[in-house]
Design a protein that fits this description.
With 230 residues, this protein is an all-alpha fold. The protein has a single domain, classed as MetI-like (MetI-like fold, Orthogonal Bundle), CATH 1.10.3720. The protein is built from eleven helices and no strands. The longest helix has 35 residues. The radius of gyration is 23 Å and the shape is elongated.
């Protein structure tokens, strides 16, 4: 009787870079990591915006503080992520809060500058015309200046979001890095398929979020499309 041939090794056993079986067998883990990654990115950018907006208005109102605000947010961005997380851990502990706060602080240098640049780009004539029509400071800001500054602000949000997708992986040092957890595990064990798939998902997530923000900007600023349809 002729002996049967041994079953061929699958791509997981061979440790191939491209392995569809890895995706099918680890779909649940990948999905959980992707959702966690997305949640960290969204929360950190929103936190950054909540801080950046009043800081930018403060710097705009008191010009002497502009250098301090911009310089401080830039200095925070230069702090290595490991050092920044280590500084936050005694205050916020190990976990998602530290990661979100850290990434939110990193986003400030981009968001503050873009809010300032967007508001500064509003024409003086537009401001004077609105003031002449009886617009107060708050109404002028929210009804005139912010809508006109929105394209520049959205550009900053896009950059901050894409940066956060990459920086979130650093949260793996606190066991809360979304896809970064799987990426680090894959590198440590030389699991090629895991490294490739998690890296590809990070890139795809960044692209998807950027496209979504472009769509949001087009909806919020319809007047910028007049040249496209003309």
């Amino acid at each position: 009787m002729t002996p049967s041939a041994p079953p061929p090794e699958n791509c997981l056993i061979r440790n191939d870079w491209i392995c569809g079986e890895y995706i099918t067998t680890r779909a649940s883990d990948l999905g959980e990591a992707l959702v966690q990654h997305l949640g960290i990115v969204v929360a950190s950018v929103l936190f950054g915006l909540v801080l950046a907006f009043p800081l930018a208005l403060l710097a705009r109102r008191y010009r002497r503080l502009e250098g301090v605000v911009v310089g401080t947010t830039t200095a925070i961005y230069t702090i290595p992520s490991l050092a920044l997380f280590s500084l936050l851990v005694p205050l916020t502990g190990l976990g998602p809060t530290t990661v979100v706060l850290g990434l939110g602080l990193y986003s400030l240098t981009i968001l503050v500058r873009n809010v300032l640049d967007g508001l500064s780009a509003v024409s003086v004539d537009v401001r004077e015309a609105a003031t002449g029509m009886g617009y107060g400071a708050s109404r002028l800001l929210f009804k005139v200046e912010l809508p006109l500054a929105l394209p520049t602000i959205m550009a900053g949000i896009r950059v901050a979001t894409v940066s956060a997708v990459a920086l979130t992986t650093v949260g793996a040092i606190l066991d809360y890095g979304g896809l970064g957890d799987l990426l680090i595990q894959g590198k440590q064990s030389n699991f090629k398929a895991q490294v490739l798939v998690t890296s590809a998902l990070c890139v795809l997530l960044a692209i998807a979020l950027d496209l979504i923000l472009v769509g949001v900007q087009r909806v919020l600023t319809p007047w910028t499309r007049t040249g496209e349809t003309g």
